[in-house]
Specification:
heterodimer; A: 351 residues; Rossmann fold; five-stranded parallel sheet; two-stranded antiparallel ribbon; globular; B: 326 residues; alpha/beta; 2 domains; seven-stranded mixed sheet; five-stranded mixed sheet
């Protein structure tokens, strides 16, 4: 990605050290996430998105910041994003056109129309898509981290789990196994107040997710999930700790799901005052840009340039794939196994 | 040549693969210092170290999930279920995550999940199960179920080398009950997906696998002696993918089929085999496809109950005689 001209490195207010280039790169991913989702909403309304559309509005900050704390590049750290971690996926190198093709079930999507939305992966770039069964990616990412440990590679795994997802058995089993094995794994617990329509008090009896982690002997911290710097700093600390062989770390990010579970959900169960508050007082992108501008680390012009670039990129990606074909029906058969290479076509299809 | 048990053959197979390929590692409950509940991995920890023989918490879903993650990264995990009955705790991970990985996401997941299955050992409802039918319905998995000492070794080695996830079902009644001379130094690799004619015959075919393969062979012997009926016995060895060609060939040869399995009846594998014969060899049948299976009850503990519920040699003899006279 082409970046603006290098500026002097400045200490951000929280104390984490990020260069101006990095600060602008983070802004780019925040803006890209939000703009791409807005484009998907338009495509959804035009019935071009085949399935559901899941928004991360209000959660872009923690997604982008946590992923940004990893070592990125070929064969570096690996993360497993959830449905509201589009920002994490983009930071790791997934392209907007891949996301658009996934949602529109295009033949040339990363999964060739077999899977939805952010359910795809590129282990070389460093991301492993989730399946819909929440919690399952914790043991799987423990296995990825186990491979790092067995091969003595200085790599780290990072996996997200929602507040509702921490109620699953696989979350418990996976976190416990990872803790016992002291695996290089960072778990981001996203407390966003709503698991579909279920609030936290019906999901668990502890106050903070961080308390759950303590039960596994896993150090944990609760941070303001809409403070990009706080999430970055906490994740950076946990990632480097894991890389030094110190084991699992759990970071609870307090944030808020500002849209329904998916686009169809009118979220009538969410207090309107809460939505207003989080939108007006605690938007992660607004907070981030305010801090950059107040600390004089970037200029309005820098940000506007990025906004313009993001708009062009999303436009180009959309134009490039919106009219592409869906997969050919018979392409459904290959690839269940290496061998046989394709499932048999059933007899009534050849009558 | 050395005479080895089924269990020893299995043990040798895993050992040889771990010697050959450093990517192979074991994880499961009590597999390390203790050597596994049945001692399949006895001595492995000492030879290969704790990093390649990993004792885990009692967490079947995490065992399978972690195996999958490691397999994605190019390792070759062999996950043990202490008793295969507990594989149900990992059902979600196997069917939703592991089995779909290649198809939905192009992910390679070369891993083996193995464990002791089956009854006839007074294990009660939770140490006697045969879970194959629950997984036969899952595209993306392979299921092997060896009956002989040679195949115990040959199929575990092939399973570890396979590029796709394999369930390896090992019948605990066979562990120390059957022995066979295995040549030392020979690389035994039983191909996955190929059945084997365990006994040649002309009048009737019995299709079976696992422990009931031996009961079917006993029944065939008795029928030959008492009735002069020549019974062919087909050992499926792999249940998924099923060897349709071998099944159809034996049907065309004898024209009568009895399917014998230890698992319960309704929704059992015999139904699937019967459907395939119906589709592919209907015109060759001279009688109905019949089944000898367990009754549709959980497997009970008391010897009198278990013996009544599970298929016995006498049951197979009676059923085969009925079919021969049809």
């Amino acid at each position: 990605m082409a970046l603006p001209a290098t500026r002097p490195t400045g200490a951000v207010p929280s104390g984490a050290v990020l260069s101006a280039d990095q600060l602008l790169e983070i802004y780019y991913y925040l803006r890209l996430t939000r703009t791409l989702e807005e484009r998907l909403v338009a495509l959804y309304r035009q019935t071009k998105v085949i399935g559901g559309l899941f928004r991360s509005l209000g959660q872009e900050g923690e997604s982008v910041a946590s992923a940004y704390a990893l070592e990125r590049g070929r064969h570096k750290d690996i993360l497993s994003p959830l449905i509201r971690n589009l920002g994490s996926l983009l930071v790791m190198g997934a392209q907007p056109i891949e996301i658009l093709r996934q949602y529109m079930a295009k033949a040339d999507s990363p999964t060739h129309g077999r899977e939805l939305n952010v359910h795809f992966n590129d282990l070389e770039k460093g991301y492993l898509g989730q399946i819909s069964h929440l919690g399952d990616m914790i043991p799987v990412m423990a296995g990825i981290a186990l491979s790092f440990k067995l091969r003595a590679e200085p790599r780290v795994g990072l996996v997200y789990i929602g507040d509702g997802g921490t109620s699953t058995g696989t979350f418990h089993e996976g976190l416990n196994l990872a803790a016992v094995q002291r695996l290089p794994l960072v778990v981001i617990g996203e407390y966003n107040y709503w698991a579909y329509s279920t609030p936290p008090e019906k999901q668990f009896a502890v106050k903070d997710l961080a308390e759950k982690a303590k039960g596994y002997g896993v150090p944990s911290v609760t941070v303001d999930g809409n403070d990009v710097f706080a999430v970055y700093e906490a994740t950076r600390f946990a990632v480097e700790r894991a890389r030094r062989g110190k084991g699992v770390h759990f970071i609870e990010v307090k944030t808020y799901r500002r849209k329904g579970h998916a686009e169809h959900d009118d979220q009538h169960y969410v207090p309107k005052t809460d939505l207003d508050h989080w939108a007006k007082e605690n938007d992660p992108v607004d907070r981030y840009t305010q801090r950059l501008l107040t600390a004089d680390l970037v200029t309005d012009g820098d940000l506007k340039d990025i906004d313009d670039r993001v708009r062009v990129e999303v436009d180009q990606a959309t134009d490039a794939c919106v009219n592409e074909s869906l997969p050919a029906p018979e392409s459904a058969l290959p690839g269940v196994y290496v061998d046989p290479p394709a499932a048999d076509k059933l007899w009534f299809k050849v009558l | 040549m050395a005479e080895v048990t089924f269990l020893e053959a299995l043990r040798q197979g895993i050992w040889e693969e771990m010697e050959r390929d450093e990517r192979v590692f074991i994880l499961g409950e009590d597999v390390g210092a203790y050597g596994g509940a049945f001692k399949v991995t006895d001595g492995f920890s000492k030879r290969f170290g704790e990093s390649r023989v990993i004792d885990t918490p009692i967490s079947e879903a995490a065992i399978v999930g972690a195996a999958a993650g490691a397999a994605h990264m190019g390792l070759r995990p062999v996950a043990e279920m202490q008793f295969i009955d507990f594989i149900s705790c990992a059902y979600d991970m196997l069917t939703n995550y592991v089995a779909t990985a290649r198809y939905r996401a192009g992910l390679s997941t070369p891993m083996v999940v193995r464990g002791p299955c089956g009854g006839y050992v007074r294990g009660g409802p939770f140490h006697s199960q045969n879970p194959e039918a629950a997984f036969l319905h899952t595209p993306g998995l392979k299921i092997v179920y060896p009956a002989t000492v040679r195949d115990a070794k040959g199929l575990i080695k092939s399973s570890i080398r396979d590029e796709d996830p394999v369930l390896y079902l090992e019948h605990k009644w066979l562990y120390r009950r059957i022995k066979e001379q295995l040549p030392e130094g020979e690389e035994i690799l039983t191909p996955i997906g190929q059945a084997r004619i365990a006994r040649e015959g002309k009048h009737l075919s019995i299709i079976s696998y696992g422990a009931t393969l031996w009961k079917s062979l006993e029944a065939a012997e008795q029928l030959e002696k008492a009735d002069g009926v020549s019974v062919e016995v087909l050992d499926l060895r792999t249940l998924l993918p099923m060897d349709d060609a071998a099944i159809v060939a034996t049907v065309k040869k004898t024209n009568k089929v009895l399917i014998v399995h230890e698992d319960t009846r309704t929704g059992g594998i015999a139904g699937e085999i019967a459907a395939r014969i119906n589709e592919q060899a209907f015109e060759w049948l001279d009688g109905p496809i019949m089944r000898v299976t367990a009754h549709d009850v959980p497997i009970p503990y008391a010897p009198t109950l278990e013996d009544f519920v599970l298929p016995q040699t006498d049951d197979i003899v009676k059923a085969a005689r009925w079919l021969a006279n049809y």
